[in-house]
Write a structure and sequence with these properties.
heterodimer; A: alpha/beta; 11 helices; 13% strand; globular; B: alpha/beta; 5 helices
Amino acid sequence: MELVPRILEGDRRALARLISLIEDDGPPAQAALAALYPYTGRAHVVGVTGAPGTGKSTLVNELAKGFRRRGSTVGIIAVDPTSPFTGGALLGDRVRMRDLAGDPGIFIRSMATRGSLGGLARATGDVVKVLDAAGFAVILVETVGVGQAEVDIARTAHTTVVVEAPGLGDDVQALKAGLMEIADILVVNKADQPGAAQTARALEVALELGRNNAGPGKDAAWRPPVLKTIALDGSGVAEVLDAIAAHRAYLESSGLWSHREQARARADLIGALERELLARLLVQVGEEALEEWAARIARREADVYTAVQALLR
Amino acid sequence: MGERLRVLIAKPGLDGHDRGAKVVARALRDAGMEVIYTGLRQTPEMIVEAALQEDVDAVGLSILSGAHMMLVPRVIQGLREAGLDHVRVFVGGIIPDEDIPALKEAGVEAIFGPGTSTQTIVEAVRRACSGG
């Protein structure tokens, strides 16, 4: 397990290697994660999510530069989709992050979703932990371009930034459940384009409506700010950085930081249990049994629930 | 789930023609690989840094500017200095025949000129990265 001490000493090659092992899964990765876990818990994990083409990568590039100017080191995880047909992926987020090259205070890693559907890869949460243990003060997690319901990022991040752009839908879109609800900070990017003011207004209205009937679990004390940026030239980015810092201060002073940490730990635990239990069951009954039941279900000789009970017996 | 090949496709130098790089990136993607695409005007230092952070198995360099004899050896030397000797390097683009022996001598795995089929490239990358 020589990777762990090297990572703690700041060896970037060891860091990159362990991330690959985590992506490929297996006992060595789990042992390393266990050894690194005591060194985690210091980083501020910031999620950046939104529809494809809203400018997430460009904004992440600007946010990273801003954090560096303010003295923080930055780890970046940029997630792009895996093809459901070939298993391949084209990871193109680095194209927008060339300004960050050559800075030893920055580490960028592209990740493919490898079949996960919530906007992140299965291993993203564990890679966050490795970057945290390696000492990065801020970890920016850029999700795949999402639709409406890929909200895994809210469980992984302390602070979630939802990026919108003008012209992507009317004000009813802003009322729908899902993405908007997880926003701690809303950014209308491409604010120099027509319709930016209307988009920002629609978001404000939706937030106001939501505020009046904030249910349990939704903290009324933090009102997500709606900020306008032009990520291409950096306009408005300082305000986003300020809002991220303010949200962190709010989480800490309100006790929500530890609350979110526990919610994340719980989700991690359930996820790991699901995978482990399924793996053990497959060892017990064998892949063939699973295939047999799948065939019987497809032929309408059995149903899914009967099969589950039979497989677990 | 087994280990998946990761390949960095980069365009060093100053020419702005990235169609070839994109065609190859897409072909490798369709062959089931994870392709990290870095875009135009990468310096050798940027390419080495990206290869290290992304823990790739191979680097593909697309060069149409004629500066390959300067750029390619610098990338390969940088990879060695970073401890990335295992990373296979491929070059695509317009490379005169007389330069090929020197590039191979410098450590290039294979060179793909205009008209090379994407199938040839996919097979060469797969073979080189599976310890061949």
